[in-house]
């Protein structure tokens, strides 16, 4: 049975002064994953996020979070959300722990045990009693995430969270976001224009351009036995071998065919029986950058 989406965006548009910033956006986000929202700067990512968390009104359509309408059931909807839309807000003259205690007062039911659990989740145990002004940008980002998940939301929303982070900070962010989905069951919705980081971080990516949804790609889909995948056969006479495999294409000395996993041994045996020398067989994988350029017609991401 398919799970109900954590977020359901239905025909959402944002129009300001007759200019459409987001146009008829429809998107379902399933629970328990890191969901990427990818697009060039100015594509409509932040506008969409602001509508999701109630910082901007919705011109048309509606957004549902855990079944609650952002338009008509705002308090119930945003109660399910933790978000960092701008830089995390915190008191730099207080310690990280004092910041969390202060923030917890605004969220009924947050216990000291929950604060301690959250600190461990984001890997700040060793520095939590130091003043925030001594924290690196990556540590402040972690503290911001800790604040956002104190009340055990079902959805964590992060807008361009890797901005300003060094490679180590980005890798650490990626690791603990993955941990949050596994151990807390939180769905993470993260926007970015960095293709390489989204590819490593996300399970699914939605691509937006000029305010319109272009495509949704599952980056972690495992091919079943009957699913078609692209397979490359490196052999001695690819042109002649192409006549044996329906729909195959030739790229130099490589024969590329869309086949099921179970067909691969049969195709290999057929090629060998026909006298071809098969030097190698491999899956053809496409990077997120290649997929992005394919669906956007080669448009830039920066």
Automatic annotation (TrEMBL):
<comment type="similarity">
    <text>Belongs to the ABC transporter superfamily.</text>
</comment>
<feature type="domain" description="ABC transporter">
    <location>
        <begin position="7"/>
        <end position="235"/>
    </location>
</feature>
<dbReference type="InterPro" id="IPR017871">
    <property type="entry name" value="ABC_transporter-like_CS"/>
</dbReference>
<keyword id="KW-0547">Nucleotide-binding</keyword>
<keyword id="KW-0813">Transport</keyword>
<dbReference type="InterPro" id="IPR003439">
    <property type="entry name" value="ABC_transporter-like_ATP-bd"/>
</dbReference>
<dbReference type="GO" id="GO:0005524">
    <property type="term" value="F:ATP binding"/>
</dbReference>
<protein>
    <submittedName>
        <fullName>Multidrug ABC transporter ATPase</fullName>
    </submittedName>
</protein>
<dbReference type="InterPro" id="IPR003593">
    <property type="entry name" value="AAA+_ATPase"/>
</dbReference>
<dbReference type="Pfam" id="PF00005">
    <property type="entry name" value="ABC_tran"/>
</dbReference>
<dbReference type="GO" id="GO:0016887">
    <property type="term" value="F:ATP hydrolysis activity"/>
</dbReference>
<dbReference type="InterPro" id="IPR027417">
    <property type="entry name" value="P-loop_NTPase"/>
</dbReference>
<keyword id="KW-0067">ATP-binding</keyword>
